[in-house]
Amino acid sequence: MTLTDPSTKERLNVGKVLCIGRNYARHAAEMGAAVPQSPVVFLKPSTAIVRTQGSVVLPAMTSDVHHEVELVVLIGPGGRNIRESEALNHVMAYALGLDMTARDLQSEAKKKGRPWSIAKGFDTFAPLGPLVPAEEVADPQALTLSLKVNGMVRQHGHTRDMIFTVAQLISFCSRVFTLEQGDLLYTGTPEGVGPVVAGDQLEAACTGMRSLTVTVV
Fold this sequence. Notes:
Layout: E1 2-4, E2 11-13, E3 17-21, H1 25-30, E4 40-44, E5 49-51, E6 55-56, E7 65-67, E8 69-75, E9 91-98, E10 101-102, H2 103-112, H3 117-120, E11 126-128, E12 132-133, E13 144-149, E14 152-158, H4 166-174, E15 184-186, E16 194-195, E17 201-206, E18 212-216
Parallel strand pairs: 3-15, 5-11, 6-18
Antiparallel strand pairs: 1-2, 3-4, 7-10, 7-16, 8-9, 8-15, 9-12, 13-14, 13-17, 17-18
């Protein structure tokens, strides 16, 4: 999977797809979970990415797939042990994304103390919208996110309500993984997650960004 740097038009290979769970207090509450004391990090394979106007394919292994709209960060200059005060200098671009989740498989994994990889990692389970250069986003904590399903608003939130800011997430993740150019960071979803079915049209929107639209099949 490759992406195009929106500023230089250089082609980039996608690296790690890092994701954050429970990064909005109201979403944690709707999931019956406590507010985390440190970021909840999991990964998706790059094969989960599908671009705007693409399709989310419902797997046969699940009967309960949910949408989760998120702000996504594309890492530019890599690094390790990045200071929070310098973290945003490592952002190349922002985009809208969806963290599609097989909720039944995730619930089963939670009960058994297992990872969420299967519930989160199916092909097409990480839709990604058009990239916006980082310099065009003055403050990633001042963005409104929304998701419509078949024209009806399902999710609406604001990045100021993140438990851990974008800078804090980059800094934290860089203490675990060396961040590299082309890595993606899905920063968590606000409340309002819910199920999708075949035929649904999903449209994500965010302040100052082009929309992300996918069809569920």
